[in-house]
Write a structure and sequence with these properties.
217 residues, mainly beta, Jelly Rolls, 7-stranded antiparallel β-sheet, 14 strands, 55% strand, globular
Length: 217
């Protein structure tokens, strides 16, 4: 957790059962993520898996704030540094001058580089105007495909964006920089942002993982 963000069970909103996980983030950058690691989930046979969760976002950033809701990470094969495959978004989308939402995006990061271990990256692949809706429950699905260095992001059953090998560009590398998948050993879900933003409230329910596509409830 960072910047005073909180994460916990809450009965305000839910899809099934009587509670969901609520992430509350005050103004500024930061957030809170839950992590799943180790047996019996990781390591995943074949280093590829699907996931699904229901999310409710009360509001989206109306400026170019980079945010993440799902992150798979692990050591890059034959290396000593980690890589992260992130699902989130960044750019505001408008229609006729009216704010529609924050465009979804895939992100590749090598976080150990900030401490001097491994190459810097911070690469992106943007969707074509697709946003993560606010004000209602939304089904989010993903596929992490380690052997093919790929990932795909679906919203309410429709493919929003996919990446196979490389993205659109990188902060610290050229656009052809390979998004080398890690040996996945951890999954994080929640909400976090990396630039100054307003307060955000984000709910998560019905998280599921499988080696085949889970589908929406």
């Amino acid at each position: 957790m960072s910047n005073g963000a909180t994460l916990g069970l809450d009965a305000e909103r839910f899809v099934s059962g009587a509670q969901s996980v609520k992430v509350t983030v005050p103004s500024g950058d930061g957030g809170a993520m839950m992590a799943l690691s180790g047996s019996p989930v990781f390591p995943v046979s074949g280093n590829a898996f699907y996931g699904r969760m229901m999310v409710f976002w009360e509001s989206a950033p109306e400026s170019a704030v980079h945010w993440t809701i799902v992150e798979g990470r692990g050591l890059v094969p034959s290396q000593t540094y980690h890589a992260a495959y992130r699902l989130g978004g960044q750019h505001p989308v408008s229609n006729g001058g009216t704010f529609v939402g924050s465009q979804v995006m895939l992100n590749y990061e090598t976080p150990d580089s900030y401490g001097g271990n491994g190459p810097s990256s911070d690469c992106w692949r943007h969707a074509n105007g697709t946003v993560l809706p606010t004000g209602d429950w939304v089904c989010v699905e993903w596929h992490y495909d380690g052997p093919n260095n790929g990932m795909t992001f679906w919203i309410d059953g429709e493919q929003a964006v996919t990446m196979m090998g490389t993205g659109d560009g990188c902060v610290a590398q050229d656009a052809s920089y390979p998004w080398t998948a890690p040996d996945f050993d951890e999954l994080r879900v929640g909400y976090e942002s990396y630039q100054a933003d307003g307060a955000r409230t984000f709910f998560i329910d019905d998280v599921a993982l499988d080696t085949e596509r889970v589908g929406c409830p």
